[in-house]
């Protein structure tokens, strides 16, 4: 009952030409959700990728104007139509040593994250505002950096409501369930909601035949969704696609079967694993 656009609401598709906004893809998704009793989470207002080329060519003063105009334009267009926004996506460096070196950090300074959240609140006062990132689901340097970032935002009165844990993982190696739960609890203690925002589980490295790999995948999906169900701060789970026929994983990691439905759109064991997790089985 909760839907997120993978691509259609990002900067490049919504403002490929400066000052000219286009929303047909996002609007179609919102219309589908409304027709089927679903909510929508917007994704993502500020990300260092999926940017049209003109953004990198701007001077610092021009970038600030474009940054503000883009957030107001997109969040304003969907005001009242989305329940939440991934406001800033993947701003922490993979080393966990601070903010990632991006066009926004270089042109606007470290406070661009806080500015984005303030602008998003002004553009859509009722939407839940979320910071979203990957490889920060458990406990470690990067999740500590995410925690420090959002804690600092909260302490400064910046309007942030939640954190998205992407959960792009391999079945052969992922954070322990105890560490995922502990991370959710410490974020919840800050007064933030948590969501698993882009989950898929790769199985190409799992030993054994396909039947074996699919059963391992089922267990991973079950166990991680069970953590979310059990933790009061965790409000939702989103899978990054629903059929193996269309997944970003194939392009970045090679052929795999990471989702809940196979290439023919039949439910896989992972689907029943998620269902069992939600039903407490």
State the end-to-end distance: 21 Å
SSE order: EHHEHHEHHEHEEHEHEHH
Q: Measured on Cα atoms, how large is the radius of gyration?
A: 19 Å
Q: Would you count the extended β strands for me?
A: 8
Helix content: 40-55%
Low-confidence stretches: none
What form results from the Cα inertia axes? Answer: globular
Largest sheet: 8 strands, parallel
Helix run count: 11
Structural class: alpha/beta
Could you tell me the strand content as a percent range?
15-25%
Q: Give the averaged pLDDT, no decimals.
A: 98
Description of the molecule:
By secondary structure, the chain is α/β, with parallel strands linked by helices. Helix content is 43%, strand content 17%. The chain contains 11 helices and 8 strands. It has helices spanning 11-14, 24-35, 53-56, 60-77, 103-108, 112-123, 141-155, 177-189, 210-230, 248-253, 269-278, and strands at 2-4, 39-47, 84-89, 128-133, 162-165, 168-170, 193-202, 234-239. Strands 1, 2, 3, 4, 5, 6, 7 and 8 form an 8-stranded parallel β-sheet that branches. Helix 4 (60-77) runs parallel beside helix 6 (112-123) and helix 8 packs parallel to helix 9 (210-230). It starts with a strand and ends with a helix. The model has no long low-confidence stretch (mean pLDDT 98).
